[in-house]
Design brief:
The structure holds two protein chains of two kinds.
Chain A: H1 2-20, H2 24-49, H3 58-75, H4 79-101, H5 106-126, E1 136-137, H6 154-176, H7 178-188, H8 190-195, H9 200-226, E2 228-229, H10 231-235, H11 237-250, H12 257-276, H13 283-298, H14 302-326
Antiparallel strand pairs in A: 1-2
Chain B: E1 4-13, E2 16-26, E3 31-35, H1 42-49, E4 57-62, E5 65-66, H2 72-78, E6 80-82, H3 95-103, H4 110-123, H5 139-151, E7 157-161, H6 169-184, E8 188-192, H7 196-199, E9 205-210, E10 213-218, H8 220-225, H9 227-234
Parallel strand pairs in B: 3-8, 3-9, 6-7, 7-8
Antiparallel strand pairs in B: 1-2, 1-4, 4-5, 9-10
Helix pairs in contact in B: 3-4, 3-5, 4-5
């Protein structure tokens, strides 16, 4: 209950943030954090709960971004509907993704996902109808909540927050249902999972489809926020890696791990860019990478995992002290 | 009709015949021990019944329905529960969550699955450890947890792969009590076992394999007098 209150308090504070700051740089940083967190939470459904590490999730992000943008530009379909359709298309295509990649396990699965994402990027780079390498631009002629285009930052902030809350709610629903138990069973011991009647191919695909759906929603939001997409910005390998990193840093298979990871990662990314970006080219990336190595070495269970371990150790120590005192 | 019937089950791995024309039956509510020296093909026969291997020839029926060739998850649904040589518990979950994952096969509501799971945990004497992470339990506790997990799928037949191996005498006694209690629930047990002093006193029937062939099958007393069995275990004297 206590953690629920804390969560509710944080959510309200987060919702009110745009009213407290008028600095667009701060607000933009907050939007980046929320968007990274949402992607991490979506990735975590497959990578964290089901233990299937995908390094190709940019494919779904790009499909979401391109689907809503192309539907808008070519057929005048409202971006809200386009976003939903993009999610559905990504979830449908994820069956092809799963069919090809789930034949492989562990590292080989991860490698296959990279290949599939590269393939998608090549297709969009050479597809004239999708703007090929030049990309697509969303006009600013229609603005407001109906068109999901705004001149200010605050509405995007609320959109990103809403999408994050939606993705977290879906994660919670999965975690509390039989699907959550099945995914963890598959992650821990696939053979034993089969022995208790779990169709592991089916449940991995369920996790992948859900993950693809929410990742695509994030892609559509990006397109509406930037009003410009090209293969490099929505289909790049770096994006796939970032989605995985956010979860792994924060703690895989936990609901709020990716949120913590997104805060840390995005802030580090922006700070190093501001501090070193102008002077030496690439210095920011070196420091960024160095910090990731430090976290990976010292906190292998992610930051949230580390906090939990400390708490558990503290409890155990207190218990043994109490026992000694009683003696 | 017996609960489980193996009809001439043969399993070939390349040039190796792991099981050759193996036939035996398990009746409802029976404890059957499957014994034999190392490499006799016990685990292979076991994996054929549980759906992990498809027999190269022959047929396996459970309750009159052919299950050979089905996937492990389909076998589980048909009523075959199993444990593994290493317990293979879900180590990131607590004990009760391990058993819940299995109970969810027939009861999709998590709250109801939890009640079933607690019942089976108590059945194997682990109710005190319900909230303990499975990864921090002893080998003996994890073995019993794996048994509770298999039972929670509601099997007609439980396959146990060396559940007594590596346990100390008091732990073996605990496990023997659990096996007897399972039979009292009307669930048949097919047990692959090396610890003969654990299985011989409680088995209704013993099936002996050697080099992929069934060499004997009968009550424990009959089997232990059988010259072929003695030869297989002690070498030709």
């Amino acid at each position: 209950m206590n953690s629920l209150k804390i969560t509710a308090g944080l959510a309200i504070a987060a919702a009110l943030l745009p009213l407290a700051t008028s600095n667009p740089t701060h607000l933009n940083l907050a939007i980046l954090v929320l968007m990274a967190a949402q992607l991490g939470v979506a990735w975590n459904l497959l990578g964290g709960y089901a233990g299937q590490v995908s390094l190709g999730h940019a494919a779904f992000y790009g499909i979401g971004a391109y689907a809503s943008t192309m539907l808008l530009l070519n057929f005048g379909i409202n971006p809200w509907l386009g976003m939903l359709l993009g999610g559905v298309i990504a979830a449908a295509l994820s069956f092809l993704f799963g069919w090809s990649c789930f034949r492989l396990k562990g590292h080989y699965f991860a490698m296959a996902t990279i290949a599939v994402a590269e393939l998608v990027q090549i297709v969009f780079t050479n597809w004239d109808y999708a703007g090929s390498a030049v990309g697509l631009t969303i006009p600013m002629s229609h603005q407001g909540w109906g068109a999901m285009v705004f001149a200010q930052k605050a509405p995007y902030y609320w959109l990103a927050l809403g999408l994050l809350v939606l993705t977290l709610a879906a994660t919670l629903a999965v975690e509390r249902s039989h699907v959550g138990y099945y995914l963890r069973a598959i992650k821990d011991e696939p053979d034993a999972a089969r022995s208790i009647g779990i169709d592991i191919a089916r449940y991995k695909q369920i996790a992948l489809s859900l993950s693809a759906f929410f990742t695509a929603l994030g892609g559509s939001l990006y397109a509406q926020k930037e009003l410009y997409i090209d293969p490099a910005s929505v289909l790049g390998t770096g994006l796939s890696i970032k989605m995985a990193l956010v979860s792994i840093l924060g703690g895989v298979g936990t609901m709020f791990g990716p949120v913590v990871g997104a805060v840390v990662l995005t802030v580090i990314e922006e700070l190093t860019r501001v501090a070193f970006g102008g002077s030496g080219r690439g210095t920011d990336t070196i420091i960024y990478a160095g910090l990731i190595i430090v976290i990976a070495v010292f906190y292998p269970n992610g930051l949230l995992g580390w906090v939990r371990e400390r708490r558990a150790r503290g409890r155990a120590e207190r218990a043994s002290l109490a026992q000694e005192a009683a003696r | 009709m017996s609960l489980l019937e193996l009809h001439g089950v043969t399993k070939r791995f390349g040039g190796l015949l792991a099981n050759q024309e193996v036939s035996f039956t398990v009746e409802a509510g029976q404890i059957v021990g499957l014994i034999g020296p190392n490499g006799a093909g016990k685990t292979t026969a076991f994996n054929c019944v549980a759906g992990y291997y498809t027999p190269s020839a022959g047929r396996i029926d459970l309750d009159g329905k052919t299950i050979s060739g089905l996937s492990p998850e389909a076998c589980a649904r048909a009523g075959v529960g199993r444990t593994f040589q290493v317990a293979r518990t879900f180590t990131s979950m607590t004990a009760v969550e391990n058993v819940m994952a299995a109970a969810l096969l027939h009861e999709r509501r998590v709250a109801a699955a939890r009640i079933t799971a607690l019942k089976w945990l108590a059945f194997v004497g682990l109710e005190r450890f319900a909230e303990k992470p499975a990864g921090s339990m002893t080998i003996s506790e994890q073995r019993r947890l794996a048994v509770a997990r298999a039972l929670a799928t509601g099997p007609k037949l439980l396959l146990m792969d060396e559940v007594m191996a590596g346990l100390n005498p008091s732990e073996v006694r605990e496990m023997v009590a659990v096996v007897k209690a399972i039979r009292d629930q009307g669930i048949a047990c097919l047990i692959v076992e090396h610890v003969l002093e654990g299985i011989m006193p409680i088995a209704d029937k013993i099936v002996v394999l050697d080099r992929g062939l069934k060499i004997a099958d009968g009550t424990p007393a009959e089997v232990s007098r059988d010259p072929a069995v003695i030869a297989a275990y002690l070498g030709d004297v």
